[in-house]
Design brief:
By secondary structure, the chain is an alpha/beta fold. It has helices at about 35-45, 55-65, 85-90, 115-120, 175-185, 195, 220-225; strands at about 1-5, 25-30, 30, 50-55, 75, 100-105, 105-110, 130-135, 145, 155-160, 165-175, 205-210, 215. It starts with a strand and ends with a helix.
């Protein structure tokens, strides 16, 4: 199974750290965030993996080409950021019309991707993708999902002041080949995955909740917290 790893963002909320280092390379317990993702994916048998670049791209390229995962990674440069859906659509051929992963690589995640794959394989009939979810202690800062009795998304609450719960979207999606075909046919002009694509599939998104560490490291406080967690 292949994966597209979105790693091109500016990480503006982490400045001044990200003034000189791309967010995907900030270290957590001494290991670059991108390597944590690559390690977890390769351990689960996922690959090849496409990584997009834009901000401080030369650092990302040099890191990948000198690293242990270089044989598994395809680098694609974006002179202008395409958006989370735009990058996926631009690189759909990489997924070879098979089920594949789309991952926002700006979170610290220790979830076992093999568990997500197994959940996707047993998803209810009619579901076109499987979303990784996690419990957050800051629900108003996350995209919160409400589920039916089968674990299928029935509502999204994006950074609401008083969301109904704390089960958050982890921005890790296992996309079915059927979903990819629909995206290619009907949503090929979309730019943002969370606002332009996901709402179209409410009732057809299965979920898998990880109990492992999952943390948005987008602010200095959360980044510091990630480096204190075991």
């Amino acid at each position: 199974m292949r994966a597209i790893l979105l790693a091109a963002g500016y990480g503006t909320r982490l400045r001044p750290l990200t003034d000189t280092i791309p967010k995907c390379l900030v270290p957590i317990h001494g290991q670059p965030l991108l390597d944590i993702w690559l390690q977890n994916l390769c351990k689960a048998g996922v690959g090849p993996i496409l990584v997009n670049t834009h901000y401080l791209a030369e650092q990302v390229v040099a890191h990948v080409l000198s690293g242990r995962y270089r044989e598994q990674v395809t680098l694609v440069h974006e002179p202008e950021l395409l958006g989370t859906a735009g990058t996926l659509i631009q690189n759909l051929e990489f997924l070879k019309d098979h089920d594949g992963l789309l991952i926002h690589a700006d979170n610290y995640c220790k979830a076992d991707m093999a568990d997500l794959v197994r959940a996707h394989q047993r998803r209810p009939s009619g579901c076109l993708m499987t979303m990784l979810t996690f419990r957050t202690d800051e629900p108003s800062s996350c995209g919160i999902v409400a589920l039916d009795e089968q674990g299928v998304v029935v509502e999204f609450h994006e950074k609401a002041s008083s969301p109904p719960g704390n089960l958050a979207n982890g921005a890790v999606y296992l996309l079915s080949a059927e979903f990819i075909a629909i995206l290619k046919r009907d949503l090929h002009t979309a730019k943002d995955f969370s606002t332009e694509v996901l709402p179209r599939f409410v009732g057809r998104i299965y979920t898998f909740e990880t109990v492992e560490t999952f943390l948005d490291i987008g602010t200095p406080e959360r980044y510091q917290k990630a480096n204190t967690l075991e």
